[in-house]
């Protein structure tokens, strides 16, 4: 990525007001593609851990390259920031702030953005993206709001017991379409609540989803539970949904 054109990104800051979140609002960063024009319409990529996706995942630079090289049509990226101290509480389905976050996302954030930007309103034109617990909450958002979301890009999803139980209890998930990636060196990853084998967790979730009719593109490659590995997956993951 040595072409200077890839680095000329347009990123704007927004704040979404919320009646569900205790703090009353959430900061956003929004990537607008080259040639952005409000008379056109664009697919929308919603990223959990917005700051990390932009800073460590370099998603805006990757998007610029894919669009300017003609590999993908232009799309908008919404990075939803998170307080790292509250991340598990919001992203995990058994977290104390999970209900508030999910309702904010589905009932306030999406309408707010669609009233301000020319992003498409069909669920097939919305993509939820997340790493680790961000992949987890993306799946639960799609389960909660199937009329809004069907596409999920999960990078090393933290699919713990609570998430697996929810999927196991579902009858028909034929409307879901997932790109799942996990690194083969993630077999003993230490978190703040234990050490987990993410390869096994993702294989188990893959089986649960497929048994209930979900469509999957599943990859296992050499890699650790970190952005150095996930960043490499973004071009293929985005192209899977946006090509």
TrEMBL record:
This is Enterochelin esterase. It comes from the Bacteria. InterPro entries: AB_hydrolase_fold (IPR029058), Esterase-like (IPR000801), Mycobacterial_A85_antigen (IPR050583). Pfam families: Esterase (PF00756). Gene3D superfamilies: alpha/beta hydrolase. It comes from Paenibacillus beijingensis. SUPFAM superfamilies: alpha/beta-Hydrolases.
